[in-house]
Amino acid sequence: MANASEDLLSISAIAAYLADDVEGRSRSVALAISRMADGVHLLVERALDHIDSTEPVEPPFET
Which helix (H) or strand (E) holds 54? Predict the structure, then answer.
């Protein structure tokens, strides 16, 4: 999950950088990719926060 988070940041940065060099439909596509990667990055970060915040549950004692 941590690797996915880093990869999504890279994808977003690359797409945003490419959007500066193109116009029209290609620019719209590059910006859309950047925004989608940002959105998925937020979901991954939320999942990582959830994983970190959950306390491990110990199994009940057997009698």
Answer: none
Residue partners of 11: CB distance under 8 A and separation at least 6: 33, 34, 37
Confirm whether pTM is higher than 0.85: no
Structure-token pair, residue 25: 């439909």
24 conformational bin, left if phi > 0, alpha if psi -120 to 50, beta if neither: left
State the Cα–Cα distance between residues 9 and 2, nearest whole angstrom.
Answer: 11
Contact 37, 25 (CB under 8 A): no
| In-domain check, residue 38 | yes
Span 9-46, pLDDT tens digits: 999 999 999 999 999 999 999 999 999 999 999 999 99
Angle at 55 between CA 60 and CA 47, to 5 degrees: 130
Domain count, the chain: 1
